[in-house]
Target: Mycofactocin system transcriptional regulator
Amino acid sequence: MSPVRAKPQGRPSVTDHAAIERAAFELFEAQGFDATTMEQIADSVGVGRRTLFRYFPSKNDIPWGQFDESLRHFREQFDAVPDEVPLAEAVHRCVIAFNDFDEAAVPQHRIRMRLILTTPALQAHSALRYESWRAVISEYVARRLGQPADAAVPRLVGHVSLALAVASYEQWLAHPELRLTDVLADSMAELKAYVA
Model:
């Protein structure tokens, strides 16, 4: 028989990024991004500031979640595409897969993207993240074409893909009834038709 353990006092400590994000997003929604401090977020989840900074180096990093891990998966998706798949189709498939979320994750993702796309304080930080996302696409396109990643076509595909994704997110945020992956697919089809 195991001994009876005393109930821990206070809030249990948070040990994952998602719980911190949820608490932070509640504060951002209630009082605004600029007015929310890291101290308030730490207090809300029951951890010290130092613990919080181990998960997120700054408040600006919280809306981006585990973005570096997402980019690793993004690269893996591109690596898994067979060479016989046409280049444009490969990029389109991977961009849609990157933005395909379980239904349970959609409400929090909507808050995340509204913050990223509409909060002036996040714009400079977002530019760095966008550059990293575009680089995954540019590197893949360059590899397929046998060109350097900073050549014109790979860079152009990266920029166009980002523009298409951002425009799709803006439409999705304005129309919550739409499914994000459908908006992305429709946007790509409309762009192709326009260019043709």
Residues 73 and 98 are 8 Å apart (CA to CA). Confidence is low (pLDDT under 50) at residues 1-14. The chain has two domains: 17-59, 66-195. Residues 123-145 form the longest helix (23 residues).
